[in-house]
Task: structure prediction
Amino acid sequence: MRLSLKGNAGPVEILRGISLTVQVGESLALIGPSGSGKSSLLMLMAGLERASGGSIAALGQDLTGMDEDALARFRRGNMGVVFQSFHLIPTMTALENVAVPLEIAGEAGAFSRAKAELEAVGLGARGGHYPSQLSGGEQQRVALARASVGRPKLLLADEPTGNLDTVNGAAIMDLLFGLRDRHGATLVMVTHAPDLAARCDRILRLADGLLA
Amino acid sequence: MIWALAWRLARRELRGGLAGFRILILCLALGVAAIAAVGMLRAAIEGGLTDQGATILGGDAQMNFTYRFANAEEKAWMASHAAKVSEIVDFRSLAVVGDDRALTQVKAVDDLWPLLGTVGLEAGTLVSAFAVKDGLPGGIMQKVLADRLGLKVGDAFKLGNQSFRLGAVLLKEPDSATAGLGLGPRTLVRTADLAQSGLIAPGTLYETDYRLLVPGADLDALKAAAVAAFADKGMQWSDRRHAAQGVERFVERLGSFLILVGLAGLAVGGVGVASAVRAFMEARVATIATLKVLGAEGALVLRVYLLQIAVICGVGVTLGLVIGAGGLVLGAPLIAAAMPFPVAVRLYPGPLGEAAFYGVVTGLLFAMWPLAQAVRQKVTALYRGNAGRVWPKAAHLAVMAGLFALFVGGAVWFSGNWLLAVGTLGGVFAALVVLALAGFGLQRLARFLARRGFVEGRPGLRWALAAIGGPRSEAMAVVLSLGLGLSVLAVVGQIDANFRASIARDLPAKAPSFFFIDLQDAELPPFLAMVNANPAVSKVESAPMLRGLLTQINGRNARDVVGDHWVVMGDRGITFSDAPPPGTKVTAGAWWPMDYTGPAQISFAAEEAAEMKLKLGDKLTVNILGRDIEATITSFRKVDFSSAGMGFVMVMNPSAVAGAPHTSIATVYAEGAAEAAILRDTSKAFPNITAISVKDAIDRVVEALGAIATATVLAAGAVLLTGVVVLIGGAAAGVPGRMREAAVLKVMGATRGRILVSFALRSALMGAAAGLVAIVAGGVGGWAVLRLVMDLPYRFEPWSAVGIVLGGMLATLAAGVVFALAPISARPAQVLRSAE
Result:
């Protein structure tokens, strides 16, 4: 696949021809220098970015021809995404943040399942707190709970420890791999940290928009 | 299901309160308040006129005749249909005290007057005021007239040849609202006491009103009967349902105009709404992106934010209704005291609904675009903070088009004048397009100039140009909101300045000093000899005059043929002449021969004839003093009515009106210094003729226009206030960005003074761009309103335009500087840390 984005100064080639297959249940680490295209590749896999050329299929479905709404529907229950900067909704409490994907999917018992997921990441007592009242590590744990609450088949994590110190980062990774093991999901993770990458089944290096 | 979920998510976001929506709420509230207040005032006046229609009219119904009393047949009809009939005579005259004289609108009444309502006198009763004392009958004058003539109760004054005693000072006349604009203050006398005055003679200019009390009668049937019997004899009917038609029409037109100014204000506010919604959406792009990541479709996201905007709009609209209606209700005593007619201030659901309609539709219309853009944008672009730069979906564009059509349709429906409504909205739309182009041009120019050599060594200027031309520039929002506000003000300014200029400059230079009316045939030669002998008099014109009502055109009712054209809306002056009067320019047809005695012929004013689609050979029926005269149009003439000189729509051949009682009218052009002496000498020599000072008449008109000017200025003030709120909102919204910029510049060694100068420069440049567009828009808009709507001459009034533009630039500069103070005084470390 290829990805080219338009900027004020003209188009920029982000991914210049990548062919990649991830097996069900596999954990894959994408590493490489800044600007190499790791996060863009992850966003393409999540259906959050559109490829300029080629095709992407996930869980047996071709994402290439789907419009924004179809992609959103596909993510429900199939995918969980974790970002470096957490992206919690600031106007919602931790519990509400975790319940949102279930509410959107119209699933019953959203809040009780969200409470259980928060407890699983060790934040059962902080459900009523807003993101601004939580530390960075706690916010990322809420984000993890939110990503996993729908039992997704595919977990995508974009530098999940990038904004955290070593201790918090290690705790988040333990949680991430624990959730993945518990739900049997496929995990694709972008990271700069070699020790975190080493915990995955496979490591791929990107450089200048190509697989090295 | 989707709405329920959307509402649940929207409610969670709204828990934080409405603090971030102050500008949006204020913009909507101000626009809605202005429209609600205008609509309520209009309803209150109409309500007052309806509630007290009979009192205002002075009876259940009125039959009006021009320059004659009702004849025996008409009087018999009234007596057989009404329980009571009161006769009133209305005319202009001069009230004379020694050498002093003043124009007055005389109302001569019978013993039954007033049939309804009460007369307010400073002291005493109506009977005692009219009573004969020391051989002089009593008269009642408005205080302003008594003061002008230095009269106290008991002092004597003359009307024509008859002396009166001031019996009382008039405070309130119950049926004054039906009289329209009088050229002088009121004097009340009894008709019987005028017998020796010489003022009411055949051919003199007076009107008679017969007020009828008809309890329980079917007014429609009564009107139909009266119109069928007497309308073609010049009788005009009115009844309590529309007692003061002139006031109603005036209020309706002024109300429509003000509501359109309010709409323009709402459009300005709408730009503020759009900016506020855009800022609101920008603050939520990350949340929108997250919702999409979590599987939310565009429809759900759109509903979540549409519901929030709807709630906020609801708050703004409600606040506007409370301010508009509450202000009017609280100010009711003051308003009632200021109006010459009854005002029924209460809550009128109609105008409030109208204002709410405009508010809700404006809010949704201007909110829809940024909303539709945000929900269509890719998640990754949203996370990069880029909500715009994408076209909304076709369905959303269709919704916007529907809302726009609803807005235009509502404006047309509510204003009742599609031309004015569509013209105003078209003007606003055109101004927005021009402003958008100006904003775009300014950004491009700034980007171009920022890279030129001359800005080297001028970092303040370069930063300002870079900020205007760069990404996330405020230029477009500022130019649009400020430019539209200034454009509306500039148009109002041009109209106002042109009005004043045309009254102050054009008229007096061309207009005569006096009109003399009611000159009897025997008085005319000595009168002309007297004024022509005066060296200060430069020109005298005179013509015989009758008054007549154009009732039929080619055998059909004239109003059915030409609608509400002013020529058929009341009686008109008609003259007769064997030869074309001096200066006459016949544009078509031919004048009748000297001493022509054949079938009646008429020469008609060319411009009015064209408006009424009259042709040579058309037959007109004119009712003069109850007698129908049918005449054929045989020529058209050019008549200039704008000079305030003598101008007749219709001239007939003398034999056509032979025997009809008439008087003459004369215009006298004289030097200003000699006017007082001319008035004194002529009225002493000819006590029963009436002189109307054109200057005084113009003063009265200007006084009446003052109310319109005040109302317009208030409405324009609301537009300005909205513009200022939008401006402040825009400046406030830019504070976080400027905060970061100032912090980074300080890190690089920039002083606060230099940063402030740069911030001030960009405000001034944006203000100037908005102002330049406003000058052009003001000129074009002013021209369009004056030439196309009001049919008045237009001249660009530079001072008004420059003043408005300078004011706009200063306002932008002030807002820019005030909102730059926080960024330049913040400590960089704090700003940069919180930005991480």
About this structure: Chain B touches chain A through 28 residues (CB under 8 Å). The radius of gyration of chain B is 33 Å.
